[in-house]
UniProtKB/TrEMBL annotation:
<comment type="subunit">
    <text>Monomer.</text>
</comment>
<dbReference type="InterPro" id="IPR020629">
    <property type="entry name" value="FPG_Glyclase"/>
</dbReference>
<feature type="active site" description="Proton donor; for beta-elimination activity">
    <location>
        <position position="56"/>
    </location>
</feature>
<dbReference type="GO" id="GO:0003684">
    <property type="term" value="F:damaged DNA binding"/>
</dbReference>
<dbReference type="InterPro" id="IPR015886">
    <property type="entry name" value="H2TH_FPG"/>
</dbReference>
<feature type="binding site">
    <location>
        <position position="94"/>
    </location>
    <ligand>
        <name>DNA</name>
    </ligand>
</feature>
<feature type="domain" description="Formamidopyrimidine-DNA glycosylase catalytic">
    <location>
        <begin position="2"/>
        <end position="120"/>
    </location>
</feature>
<dbReference type="GO" id="GO:0008270">
    <property type="term" value="F:zinc ion binding"/>
</dbReference>
<dbReference type="GO" id="GO:0140078">
    <property type="term" value="F:class I DNA-(apurinic or apyrimidinic site) endonuclease activity"/>
</dbReference>
<keyword id="KW-0227">DNA damage</keyword>
<keyword id="KW-0862">Zinc</keyword>
<keyword id="KW-0863">Zinc-finger</keyword>
<feature type="active site" description="Proton donor">
    <location>
        <position position="3"/>
    </location>
</feature>
<dbReference type="InterPro" id="IPR035937">
    <property type="entry name" value="FPG_N"/>
</dbReference>
<keyword id="KW-0511">Multifunctional enzyme</keyword>
<feature type="domain" description="FPG-type">
    <location>
        <begin position="255"/>
        <end position="289"/>
    </location>
</feature>
<feature type="active site" description="Proton donor; for delta-elimination activity">
    <location>
        <position position="279"/>
    </location>
</feature>
Length: 295
């Protein structure tokens, strides 16, 4: 599944389309997780003014100067979706949506939304002509936690969540907690596993059993790993491609994810795998012992 670095990489790949005008919209296969809006062709004549990312969602802001109208499209890549730009190629089997952009020199670039598993989303978030689904932003965006690379996500924030003033400390596994999008967005399975390994924290350790020093290391490692993955274009382990079809290179540096049964690069122990929330969680039993509650 494309995670935050892959979505951020996709966002950057769309920058060449900024200020270009939509010339044609072709909905080839509308059935995704939610049906693509039938009137998406109303974007014709609008310019793409901005591309934003919130968690794993992309927000494409369009503007029509003559009519002073705005439209925003929300895109989620699902399990296997990608946005790729091409010139003069035939649509492929799993190209659900094609948008032709034309620049001021008359050159046309076609943006393909490609999704073999059809679990992605393309919906209106804002449309000056009408509000098709007025609660779209509320349903998909309002519950999200802070961005992991923002200053709002720090050890004080995480500690306050784990040890709330008027409630019991949070005892759920730390891996479950950091993958909760209402706690912090974009820490998917790959990056959670890698961050916990570098922080020497077992993924099943109850969150309230982790001391402040380990929490601080965990926050720092989450930020560092995600930043490096963005620079390297994401992990791109299976279906994900971006821009001109290239994949990311971060998978070449993975220390534990996908390496069950192999030797730990740090201590030589065999890496083990456990299921947490139905997801594979690879860890080193020597480098990542479950931390007991300090007394």
């Amino acid at each position: 599944m494309p995670e935050l670095p892959e979505v951020e990489t996709t966002k950057a790949s769309l920058e060449p389309l900024l200020h270009q005008t939509v010339a044609k919209v072709s909905i080839r296969y509308p059935t995704l997780r939610y049906a693509i809006p039938k009137d998406l062709d109303s974007l014709i004549g609008f310019r793409l003014m901005a591309v934003r990312r919130r968690a794993k969602y992309l927000l494409l802001d369009f503007y029509h100067q003559a009519d002073n109208r705005h439209k925003t499209v929300l895109v989620h890549l699902g399990m296997s979706g990608s946005l790729q730009q091409h010139h003069d190629i035939e649509p492929r089997k799993h190209d659900h949506l094609l948008i032709d952009f034309i620049n001021d020199d008359g050159m046309v670039t076609t943006l393909h939304y490609h999704d073999p598993r059809r679990f992605g989303m393309i919906l209106w978030t804002h449309n000056d002509d009408y509000i098709d689904t007025p609660d779209t932003a509320e349903r998909f965006l309002a519950h999200l936690g802070p961005e992991p690379l923002d200053d709002a996500f720090d050890v004080d924030y995480l500690r306050a969540l784990i040890f709330p003033a008027s409630k019991k400390p949070v005892a759920k596994p730390i891996k479950t907690l950091i993958m909760d999008q209402s706690v912090v967005v974009g820490v998917g399975n790959i990056y959670a596993a890698e961050s916990l390994f570098l922080s020497h924290i077992h993924p099943l350790t109850p969150a309230c059993h982790i001391d402040d020093d380990k929490l601080e290391k965990l926050v720092a490692n989450i930020k560092d790993i995600l930043a490096k993955a963005i620079i390297q274009g994401g992990s791109s382990l299976k279906d994900f491609t971006v821009g001109d079809g290239k994949t990311g290179y971060f998978q070449q540096t993975l220390l534990v994810y996908g390496r069950d049964g192999e030797h730990c690069y740090h201590c030589g122990s065999l890496l083990e795998n456990t299921k947490i929330g139905g997801r594979a969680s690879v860890y080193c039993p020597s480098c990542q012992p479950i931390q007991a509650l300090s007394t």
